[in-house]
Write a structure and sequence with these properties.
Layout (H helix, E strand, L loop, with lengths): L1 H9 L9 H10 L3 E4 L16 H8 L7 E9 L7 E4 L13 E8 L10 E4 L24 E3 L7 H17 L4 E5 L14 E5 L5 H4 L6 H25 L3 H4 L10 H14 L2 H10 L1 H4 L2 E2 L5 E2 L5
Parallel strand pairs: 2-7, 5-6, 7-8
Antiparallel strand pairs: 1-3, 2-4, 4-5, 9-10
Protein name: Homeodomain-like DNA binding domain-containing transcription factor
InterPro entries: CenT-Element_Derived (IPR050863), DDE_SF_endonuclease_dom (IPR004875), HTH_CenpB_DNA-bd_dom (IPR006600)
Pfam families: DDE_1, HTH_Tnp_Tc5
């Protein structure tokens, strides 16, 4: 779409819109398809699970949308090449890049409160990108106060303990009582009892159906991140086409970025996720699940104000 827009400007085509519909028609005309390099497994059928809907509904109805939060973490392979491509035939792709950050995201049900200080977990205490001028430079020196590290860059109980205490103290300072919805990951079960945060753990195997962050919010966040990564790669391809490959390196390196760059993009990508997107994902997941049914058998989704 980006390239088509540039071509349109070069040849003087006015009012051109590289829409999704234009993209689909262009693909059909030239026999170009979106080929997935890696597939994903299907999800669990929620109807087959025994879930106490009444208990979940009772807890949620005790709070306004502003005071209902969801937290979840996701792995972000920030230097990995894309898993799909447009091509005339199947494409083998490049070797996977395993550099990763675990990102913890927190938002409330009406989308008015997304924590901009995103929780991030990396492999190293002081990544090389921090050490160019000062070997003792910390992530906090770059404005990332919620950065943790371990050998796997995974969420652990100790890291979640720190996060939960921080969130609880923030709600206490605001004199608010809130509900925090979590999946049943064992790392979320910690030896700490919040004073201003009530915890609601979702039943096993229901995360993809009930958790708002898994219902499209994380996907939107990653799409904004990848947009930044692909824009950088597109610039590099332009430099290669203009004979500056010596400044870029091998073509399979165009998607690579350092960790500091990735952390800045993570924060910007999270800020780009709109309140409307967040609200829609809540209404399509947990709120939809506990919807009321009227006497005629039709359903009515509960929207919290």
């Amino acid at each position: 779409k980006t390239k088509a827009t540039i071509f349109a400007e070069r040849i003087g085509v006015k009012d051109f819109n590289a829409s999704q519909g234009w993209m689909e028609k262009f693909g059909k005309r030239h026999c170009i398809k979106m080929n997935r390099i890696h597939g994903e497994a299907g999800s669990t059928d929620i109807e087959s699970l025994q879930i106490d809907k009444a208990a979940i509904k009772e807890k949620i109805e005790g709070y306004s949308a502003r005071d209902i939060y969801n937290f979840d973490e996701t792995a972000l392979f920030y230097a990995a090449p894309p898993r799909t491509t447009i091509s005339h035939q199947k494409f083998s792709g490049w070797k996977d890049n395993k550099k990763r950050l675990t990102v913890g995201l927190l938002c409330n049900a009406d989308g008015t409160d997304k924590w901009s200080d995103v929780l991030m977990i990396g492999h190293a205490r002081r990544p090389n990108c921090f050490n160019k001028n000062n070997k003792k430079q910390e992530a906090s020196d770059h404005g990332f106060s919620m950065y943790h590290y371990n050998s796997n860059a995974w969420m652990t109980r100790s890291i979640f303990h720190v996060f939960l205490r921080h969130f609880d103290h923030a709600m206490k300072a605001q004199k608010r009582k809130v509900l925090l919805i979590l999946d049943n990951f064992s790392g979320h079960i910690v030896d700490y009892t919040p004073t201003n945060v009530e915890l609601l753990f979702l039943p096993p195997n229901t995360t993809s159906h009930l958790q708002p962050l898994d219902g499209g919010i994380i996907r939107a966040f990653k799409a904004y991140f990848k947009r930044k990564q692909y824009a950088k790669a597109y610039q590099y391809i332009g430099m290669i086409q203009n004979g500056n490959q010596d400044k870029i390196g091998p073509i399979d390196k165009i998607f690579e970025i350092d960790q500091l760059w990735a952390m800045k993009w993570i924060r910007e990508a999270w800020e780009s996720v709109s309140a409307k997107t967040i609200e829609n994902c809540w209404n399509a997941t947990i709120f939809h699940f506990i919807e009321d049914e009227d006497s005629e058998g039709s359903s009515k989704i509960i929207y919290w104000s």
